[in-house]
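Supplementary Note 3. Input sequence used for the single-chain structure prediction.
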Amino acid sequence: MMMTITSRAVFVIALLAVVSASGHCASVWDSFLQKPTNRAFTVLKSAILSAPQRCGQKTQLTHRQTDTLFAYIQDGSPVAFRAAALMSSCFDGGDLEDYFRSVGVYFTKHPRDFLDVAYKERISDEYLRYMITMLPLSLVDNFDAQHAEISKRILLLKAIHDRRFIKIRDKLLMDLEKLQTDN
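The predicted structure, written as discrete structure tokens, is reproduced below.
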């Protein structure tokens, strides 16, 4: 009987430790997502970079947090884009596709900021290609709208002449022009 009480006590303590660890991470993300400001991003970035693993339990987003983060990106929040860029290697499957599509929408609202974040955060060419070429799901069955969106993105890129971004811009233009030719 004493063993049962001890076993239960150990289980409860272990459970509380897990909940406490999860709560700490969730509160950091929740705090950022409640009001994604530069200050909140600085706190979040510090927590992510000081974690033992970037994609570990302490930095992982919940499904609800991921949806909120992507919504902020689509609405044009540069700090949400930067926060997601920190965690992009942790996204997989549908979350990764949603990330790319969200950032594509962000690009259409803030093309120069998109290139600035891509440059500063050293986003890979592969990820940049997906970000710029994956279109919103609402355009899936509308080829005219797809063509118009691709043309819009090409024009937005051609309007950027900042020397820091020319290499990235030119690669993305090639990707979009190839996509336009294939459609």
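Residues 2-182 form one domain. The two ends are 72 Å apart (CA to CA).
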